[in-house]
Amino acid sequence: MNRHASIAAEAFAAGLFAISVLLTALRTTDTLAALRTEQVLLEPRTAPLSGFSAPVVAVRDNLLSVVSQPTNPVLWALLIAVILAALMHVLTASRNRDSTPRSWMLPAGLLVAALWPWVLNPAPLAGLALAALSCLLLVRGLSDTLGDTTPDADPVEPILRAGPAPQLTAFIAGWLLVAATSALGTFVHHRLGMGLERSVLVGLLLAALLGAWGQLRMERAVTFSLAIIWAMIGFAAAAAGASITIATACVLGIAALAVVLVRVTT
To answer: According to the model, what pLDDT value does residue 93 have?
Structure first.
């Protein structure tokens, strides 16, 4: 792909992703009430956005996770940070015209990431497949853009040469991975009948394992793991009073990702 066309495509995709994330968070969640409540995050709120006359959707019909539709300040702060990262990505992509070529997978991944939350509820399996595809495209795209570092090469140099965009994209990819795995846990609970605690643990386990894999592929694009750790802190804070098992799983996941971060930064 031509460098200028790639920059334009990535800026457009990042902007569309930011809009989609914001609308997804607001379309079935009462934002102000969510910021005031301390209730457990495992059941997404489902009141329609004020001003619309659509009927209230049953919880079992809303498969979007609390990462996409947060209900506590920690996860709201993470979502706002992701939106800001996408907007900064638009600016850096449009200004950094002398940066290294970027893989076509990055704008494609951002476009799919903007689409899958709107497909998930009416077509759960297709939505989950698109979520997995978006994560894969972003991780592979970042890996290809930064290049594989050899033992004798400086692993920081590709990131410095490419500017701040890889770190912004990696942060988005980390949040997206947790949103996708959490949605999978919600699907397993509501549609397959698995217990709520166990389904959340499935999502957390996948987030930790895939997060470690992705971080090792992207080397020092460390914001990928930082976004996952941030999300797990939000889960742990929400579940501490209701499920010590989930809170403990979050702590173990954070510890595992911290070990991977030490591995790739030393």
So the answer is: 64
In whole angstroms, give the CA distance from residue 206 to residue 107.
24
Closest alpha carbon to 79 in 21, 23, 140: 21
Query: Of 52, 46, 25, which is closest to residue 117 (Cα–Cα)?
Result: 25
CA-CA distance, 21 to 117, in Å (whole number)? 8
Neighbours of 147 (CB within 10 A): 15
Q: Output the six-digit token pair for 198.
A: 């166990």
CB 73 within 8 A of CB 57: no
Mean pLDDT of 245-257: 91
Q: State the pTM of this model.
A: 0.81
Model confidence pLDDT, tens digit, residues 53-107: 333 334 556 888 889 988 789 999 999 999 999 998 878 766 655 455 567 888 9
Q: What secondary structure, in 3-state letters, does the chain show?
A: CCHHHHHHHHHHHHHHHHHHHHHHHHHCCCHHHHHHCCCCCCCCCCCCCCCCCCCCCCHHHCCCCCCCCCCCHHHHHHHHHHHHHHHHHHHHHHHCCCCCCCCCHHHHHHHHHHHHHHHHCCCHHHHHHHHHHHHHHHHHHHHHHHCCCCCCCCCCHHHHHHCCHHHHHHHHHHHHHHHHHHHHHHHHHHHHCCCHHHHHHHHHHHHHHHHHHHHHHHCCCCHHHHHHHHHHHHHHHHHCCCCHHHHHHHHHHHHHHHHHHHHHHC
| Residue partners of 96: CB distance under 8 A and separation at least 6 | 7, 163, 165
> Contact, 158 vs 146, CB < 8 A?
yes
Cα dihedral 83, 84, 87, 92 sign: negative
